[in-house]
Amino acid sequence: MIQFNFDFHDGLNQIILILLVMLLPVQLWLLLFKSKPSWNGRLYLRLGLNILLWLVTLAFVLQPFWFSDGSGRTALLFGEEVSDDFRQAVRDSLPQSRVIRLDENTDAEKLLSVDSLVVAGQSFSDKTFNNLLLTTKRPALKWIPFRQSNSVYNLHWKAVLRKGEMQTVSGNIRTDAQQQLRLSFAGRTIDSTKLSTGDNSFRLQAPAFAQGQSWFTLTMGEKVLDTLHFFARPSEPLVFQFVQQSPDFESRNLATWLGKNGHSVQYLTTLSKDLESKESINMSKKEADIIVTDPMNASGALVKKALAAGKSVLFINIANPLSDIGRINTALGTKFALKRTSQQESVTIASGLTAFPYLFSVSGRQLNAADLPVAIEKQKGKVAVSLLNETFPLMLAGDSLAYQKVWNSILALVHPSSRNNISVEAPVISGLPAEVSLNNFANLPTQFTVGSDTIFPVESALNGLSYSASFRPVETGWLSTADSSGARLFVEKQSNYSDARIRDFLNSYFQKDAAVASTDQARHQPSPWLWLGLLLGCLTAVWVETKL
């Protein structure tokens, strides 16, 4: 069906259309009534030429176009990085298509004869993108990504987080053999996963060990795939209260580690029936945010009071999983359930780390920690239970990174809501849009800067404490943010992330021509040269006819 590239609602366009419609009666009046010619073949020719001129002028103003099946005339556009085998495979699948290049400013004219354009690969010049966006005839566009073996793509991680918070790295990779993918910090592997031959998706986790500008390295074999830069803000100091039936090395070692990381710790143990011991690390007058205790204290007033106030309770030092879980459920009304996984007394979770041979049953009321036998149930407060055996041997063996990773994973489940939260998804790439999410700020400025860019946060329609802002960084490297958080952002070079660049281009292309994107049809529109030729031809014919 024919459509028109003409805005009928625009006031000026309406005036032009009315004048153009009135032009035909004026032409006919001048030809038939003012000059009073005799009715002969010459008059019919003159009428026909004038009506034809009017129709061509009307069509030129309305700019008609139509759609047809996009498979009519197909062209192929290959990226610079595409291998010969991949190129040949694409050409074999589309034998009737032709290969074009759009590297020069005048190459946009090649698209005038194309209904469907297949873009294969990711690496293209700026001129190629400009020609695709500026062409007057927009073909239906389909993208076929080219994935090199042993290269990572669709990579995502957190650009800003707090020290001790879990960093999650996810992405995809295609391998030509079984290999191991490793996430490293300071030369040590902090998480890894096995890859099978072919396409793999992966998800690696580790805490932010150091404050400030930091980075992890993603490696496969001896090959460094990428360096993941991020900024770790200071951790938010919390108050922990340990309540133990008797002093033990596991809880005391955990309390000491928490104190060294800037948290306040109150350590309370029962030495005898009427004698208690109370110690403090980094003393604080605030109430405890998290209670760390054992199952024997599940029915205690301190635990129930903390939960009623919305605090978190973490149970450690499990001795008999079935009876201890039953005691917790009875005292607090939780619904924890266990299933045995082995007949052995313990199972190995990681090097130097063991746990009871049980797992928590999956429940919609609960959340389980990744790769650890730890579960949390949300009531007014949070109740968490760990089935791990002693973790302090990791510290004795000098593996403080593994110890920190374990406890940061557990504490993330019971961590209370933080203030002044900043969330940015990495990679942040120069010239491409990035979004900053802000939450629970006491005094959020109406604007702040990131490098040379000024950002204006917009309040969420669903949550008055949440704001977001979008910007396109123009600089690369570490950029400072002029706000109270002191956070910094690392901006990557666009040339290192061709995937992200072409995805941004596709968004722009489809937004500017939604009809092509949604119908998968080729759009046909007469060339401007055709209109020029028709108008000049009709005007010339009318002028010549009057001279004969």
TrEMBL record:
Transmembrane intervals: 12-32, 44-67
UniProt KW keywords: Membrane, Transmembrane, Transmembrane helix
Name this protein carries in UniProt: Aerotolerance regulator N-terminal domain-containing protein
